[in-house]
Specification:
Blueprint lengths: L1 H13 L9 E4 L1 H11 L1 H21 L5 E13 L2 E18 L2 H67 L5 H35 L7 E4 L10 H4 L3 H11 L1 H22 L4 E15 L5 E4 L3 E9 L7 H67 L5 H35 L7
Parallel strand pairs: 1-4
Antiparallel strand pairs: 2-3, 3-5, 5-6, 5-7
Helix pairs in contact: 2-4, 3-4, 4-5, 4-8, 4-10, 7-9, 8-9, 9-10
């Protein structure tokens, strides 16, 4: 048994292990959006729904066309003269001439459903793009913070080396040396935390891109040096509102809901009217055989053409109820449109004001970050000459890091809010 187990173990070691291929990507924001739109399963599902609606629309247009069918039959009967058979081959066609306008209204309603689905797909793209943008900006914000943290860590490392040298000659206390060591390890830990945040952000971004979590993804950071000109390119509140009211998918979808509901009312009312249809049939008897032994292969063709009318008289109130319910649905759609209008206006106005507020905060924090950075550099020089204490140096360093972190967060928050407003105004997202 031991030899058999050892032999089986060796065989398993000899089996080649097929490793899963990991793909590597280096994406800008635009690359991320293109990849997500091409691979999103939810988006593909919506596209398939659109194809189904398109097929329904194409089929409804053919309701004006006559249908055509063929039939073949053979009958067997037994009477006093014995068994006899008779058969028939026929071709028939029918066409609806008038149905209270329901055919036309159904075609138009199906077309509206196709167009509405296209707008719904556009809204999905906007929402997905904003989610991707938020994760993308969070990642590049952490990457920028990481660069600053690396510079601060280098400074902390030099401070620690100097502190160790000064402690040896007795110019600083052991407590000061311990503070410098604690600061160095704290700065090192901050870098580790930022690395983890970046990796988690990349994982979240891969989910939005419908990308394998084990794939290697690197993002290309855009140029964000032109934020000072953002205020000049910002449209007025009224201009932003006008563009949003014309382009926002939510409003256009609500408008389609009203038009679709109107067609439902017309279709329900169409059942009050008579329907007219035409039909034509051609039949030929084949292989007739009776009990006297007489047989005939073909008979004389029979032809018929007719027009019929169906007049609704009483439907137990069903048509009246359907009309009433469809009118209620229309009123609800109109109310939803008015509510959507109000919500869109509130959303756009708030988004515009958020951009203005974020820009003002960014300009203030930009000045504060520069001031604290220069102050920290000055404190570092003073510490080297022994004119300030270790506590004063580290306090100033922590103040600078706090201001720096707030500045970077506000910087990319400003970019995010500006792009949200752009989406509301119907503009494509780009950095």
């Amino acid at each position: 048994m031991k030899k058999a187990a050892f032999f089986l173990f060796c065989l398993l070691l000899m089996v080649p292990v097929v490793a899963q291929e990991h793909k590597a990507y280096q994406f800008s924001l635009e690359d991320c959006l293109r990849f997500a739109f091409a691979n999103s399963n939810e988006r593909k599902s919506m596209e398939l729904s659109g194809e189904s609606l398109q097929a329904t629309y194409e089929q409804s247009k053919k309701q004006w066309v006559p249908n055509l069918s063929a039939s073949v039959g053979e009958n067997f009967s037994n009477n006093s003269q014995g068994w006899s058979t008779s058969g028939n081959v026929g071709v028939g066609s029918s066409m609806t001439i008038y149905q209270g306008g329901n055919i036309r209204n159904t075609i138009e309603q199906n077309q509206l459903n196709v167009e509405r689905n296209e707008v719904q797909l556009e809204r999905f793209d906007n929402q997905l793009a904003l989610q991707i943008l938020q994760k993308f900006l969070t990642i590049i914000g952490n990457e920028e913070l990481l660069n600053y943290q690396s510079e601060v860590l280098n400074t902390s490392r030099e401070q620690l080396k100097q502190g160790q040298a000064r402690y040896k000659v007795g110019s600083i206390l052991e407590s000061d040396l311990l503070l410098l060591e604690a600061q160095y390890y704290s700065d090192s830990n901050s870098i580790i935390d930022t690395h983890v945040s970046i990796e988690n952000g990349l994982l979240d971004l891969k989910v939005l891109l419908s990308m394998e979590p084990t794939d290697d993804l690197q993002i290309i950071s855009p140029n964000t040096d032109n934020l000072d000109n953002l205020r000049e390119t910002l449209p007025s509140e009224e201009q932003a509102l006008d563009l949003a009211m014309q382009t926002m998918p939510d409003l256009r979808m609500s408008d389609y809901d009203i038009r679709i509901a109107e067609k439902s009312v017309d279709i329900a009312r169409g059942n009050y009217f008579p329907s007219i249809s035409a039909n034509a049939n051609v039949g030929v008897p084949i292989l007739s055989f009776d009990g006297n032994g007489t047989s005939q292969w073909y008979g004389k063709p029979s032809e018929s053409v007719g027009v019929s009318m169906s007049i609704p008289i009483y439907s137990r109130g069903q048509t009246k109820t359907n009309v009433k319910k469809s009118r209620i649905a229309l009123e609800l759609a109109q109310l939803d449109y008015e509510q959507t209008q109000l919500e869109v206006r509130q959303t756009v106005v708030q988004a515009h004001r958020d951009v203005v507020s974020a820009f003002n905060a960014y300009k203030v924090l930009q000045v504060r970050e520069e001031a604290y950075r220069k102050s920290f550099n000055a404190y570092n020089i003073q510490y080297q000459y022994g004119t300030i204490t270790t506590v004063e140096l580290l306090q100033q360093q922590n103040n600078y890091l706090n201001v720096l972190n707030t500045y970077i967060q506000n910087k990319y928050s400003l970019v995010m809010k500006r792009k949200i407003l752009d989406v509301y105004m119907g503009k494509e997202i780009s950095l």
